[in-house]
Write a structure and sequence with these properties.
The structure holds two protein chains of two kinds. By secondary structure, chain A is α+β, with helices and mostly antiparallel strands. Chain A has a single domain, classed as 2-Layer Sandwich (Mth169, Chain: A), CATH 3.30.1280. Chain A contains two helices and three strands; from the N terminus they run βαβαβ. Chain A has helices at residues 16-27, 51-66; strands at 2-9, 39-45, 72-76. Chain A has a three-stranded antiparallel sheet, covered by helices on one side. By secondary structure, chain B is an alpha/beta fold. Chain B has a single domain, classed as Rossmann fold, CATH 3.40.50.880. Chain B is built from five helices and eleven strands, in the order βαββαβαββββαβββα. Chain B has a nine-stranded mixed sheet with strand order 2-1-3-4-11-10-9-6-7, with helices on both faces. Chain B has a two-stranded antiparallel ribbon with strand order 5-8. Chain B is globular and about 45 Å long. The relative contact order of chain B is 0.18. At the A-B interface, helix 1 of A face loops of B.
Amino acid sequence: MKIKVIVTLKNGVLDPQGKAIQQTLNGMGYSDVKEIRQGKYFDIEIEENDETKAKTKVEEMCKKLLANLVIEDFKIT
Amino acid sequence: MKSSVIIFPGSNCDRDMDVALKKFGFKNQMIWHNDIELPKSDLIVLPGGFSYGDYLRCGSIAGKSKIIKSVVEFAKSGGLVLGICNGFQILTETGLLPGVLQQNKYLEFICKNIYVKINNRKNKYFKNIKKEILELHIAHNEGNYFCSNDELKLIEDNNQIAVTYCDKNGNLDDESNPNGALKNIAGIFNKDKNIFGMMPHPERMIDKYLSGEDGSVFFENLINNLK
């Protein structure tokens, strides 16, 4: 089955890339863009039919490798 | 004194480090990341470079490579582990050092000489060192040190800040901070001061004709402290 993971920077952690993208969009005329936080997206194909089990495994992967919990949060969907 | 430099795919300062260590008297060996056991060593060095192409996060994949288990065991038993640049990033990714190295504040790869101030001399790396300020070289895109406020308090309380970016005279300010690092941190120790990671490259400053000699001051002092 396919599990999706989104990794984002925690609130309060500086995101210079997000800031640069936001400023660029503002410069392009999208003046209503107030903040952008850039993140990562993972599509994980896992050989497991039980959704709960699969998500538990992916959660472990997030904690061990996919996210650095010092600065990042993750969301599994 | 025996040292080992670990080579990861994408390391590119491994041979410079080998030259530097040998120049100051270390009997150095190069160790491949797929090896499992470390040879008997007084110092393990994780060199600079772009291990695994900086995929996912700098140092994250190297932090899971086969040799790392032995490096962690060596470090936890009190062995000296030095991480330079990408090596520092690997040490934070393995959890041997606290915090993380984020992208530079102004999103630029920085390659230039900088000054660092030595903050703590009560350790094998800086005990008896003749200088207070070293001129070293940095070349990185992710050197912006960051940790949580709680972690920072612990680091400060335990005197873990090893070197900080400063100007020629040792003043710490925003102008002398090249990458936006928290508290101008260029390098930190673990609590026991046997693990040391820093972004600047001492191995690039060992020849008066090519660069400068403050790296020589560092390595010469280090081997003397280990004798």
